[in-house]
Amino acid sequence: MKILKRQYIILAMLLFAIFFPLLTQNEYLVHVMTLSFIWMIGVYGLNLLAGYTGYLSLAHAGFFAIGAYSLGLLTVKTQMNFWAAFVLALVITSVIGFLVGLIALRTKEHFFAIYTLCVGYIIYLVIDKWDSLTEGVRGLIGIPAPGNIGPISFQTPLSQYYLVLSILLLSVLVMYRIIHSLTGRTYIAIRNSEELAQTIGISTIKNKLAAFVLSTFFAGLSGALYASFIRFIGPDIGHTVITFDLLTYLLVGGIGTLSGPIVGTVLVVWISQQLQFLQDYRMLIFGPVLTLLVIFYPRGIVGAIASWNNKRAGRTKQLALKDTQKDDRFASSEIAPENQVKEG
């Protein structure tokens, strides 16, 4: 029954995403939803590393920017075919992630977070100061929209919406397969106790590096989609503020949960849209809320709902067990027919 209910919720969310552009004629709302899908992909990459492996990378915005600028530079300055540049941008991001991970993963806990924070800021400075390559603060303009695939064109906002949605669904499916595989259980074992994982023969270095590279891959994928959708990028997309925005989406939705990135991103992005008149004071609003959420519900909204369901199921089982025990006591208190005293 619980599995069927979950399937209905997933189906309802999928149908809503598919028919959303048809439910509203407001192109701005479609634009915001498309951006939400792009951010979700990046948050899934962060969730794989921080939520399931236990390593918080604060360089995520840097890899997001690498994916975006790789696509932009390859298409604008070398006039490369869009989809070839798109694939190459993912390769470049993953290779740089591999090289960074080789050094970063020699550290642990807060040292790892500080090291990746420094790496992310260095990436931001390179983009900002290397004017001859990245155009610096002027930004990179003229990035083309996704190229046609056969007769299918992606020149309109609606077609781009469905393209990003398709890539998001594929990313969620891949993430689901990873998490529910032996590899995913290995990541969870490392998160729970790296020393214990080593004692049972798990190669923690290799698995952590694989998780780190996968995380940067999804960040690069998100960045490349962002560049092709906005078609203008500047150094700000690699700033640490973007990393903390992605982390906020993850913490609100539920770190270490499969649906947390979707819930958190949609909720925070749409609330931010409604509070645009308070943009300068946004952190004064989200800061205390996020602090309270981390204190009382460390696994976010999705984790809190799961905990409530588990507690309710536990209480139901306890009540059923008590009723069974009462019935057993009542049955044992009756005199068995063969032990009854016969009259006469």
From TrEMBL:
PANTHER family under this entry?
Answer: HIGH-AFFINITY BRANCHED-CHAIN AMINO ACID TRANSPORT PROTEIN BRAE, HIGH-AFFINITY BRANCHED-CHAIN AMINO ACID TRANSPORT SYSTEM PERMEASE
Q: What is this protein called?
A: Amino acid/amide ABC transporter membrane protein 2 (HAAT family)
How is it placed in the membrane, per its record? Multi-pass membrane protein
Native species: Cytobacillus firmus (Bacillus firmus)
Transmembrane domains' residue ranges: 7-23, 29-49, 56-76, 82-104, 111-127, 161-179, 209-234, 246-271, 283-308
Primary site of residence: membrane
Q: What compartments host this protein?
A: Cell membrane
Q: Which GO terms describe its molecular function?
A: branched-chain amino acid transmembrane transporter activity
Q: Which UniProt keywords apply?
A: Cell membrane, Membrane, Transmembrane, Transmembrane helix
GO annotations of cellular component type = plasma membrane
